[in-house]
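Render this sequence as a predicted structure.
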Amino acid sequence: MKEMIDRRIKKTRLALKNAYIDLLEKFTDDQITVVMITQYADVNRATFYDHFSNKSDLLEEILCDVRDGLKEEILTPFKEKNTIKIKTLTPTTVRIFEYIDKHKKAFHALYVSYPVFKHQMEELFFEIFSKDIRMELQSEVGEVNYEMFLHYQTSATIGLIFFWIKNHFHSAAYMMDQLTILSNTKVINLISVPHSPKSV
């Protein structure tokens, strides 16, 4: 009986979360009400308040689900090995893009509706790669400041991810390959680009 009740609770909470995400694709957050969410999820208001105190509480759980799920995907490959080489497509990169692709509706809705979401993702990556995983670095021109490099790498990776979320015209496999290529690309020279003379 307890297992049946637990499944019912999970099913209801998931229905409310999915309803909120679907509505964020159609309306601004200010336009969405608890009534709209419950109608879309096909549950009554009392049921909503059995699970969440308000709309913000529901949103916070959605954000936590996304952050915790992504963190778990990033860390999973390290349960089997301590070191992962990045010159080839890494299992971490695969898991990041597969996870986002699987939950692309939630990522897109949060990206569009909550500007703070990008900052939260940057904080998540910075936390993971400063506390859980450490990048082994090598530079031919000088000593690397790890914290600066981490900010630089985090901003670049998150920027690419959100470019993909915003446009979503490439496959997850293509983005995995591109992140691997970009991470291993060195800028050789800067070349001035000639411009056509302005017509008088």
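Summary. Residues 47 and 82 are 45 Å apart (CA to CA). The longest helix spans residues 2-24.
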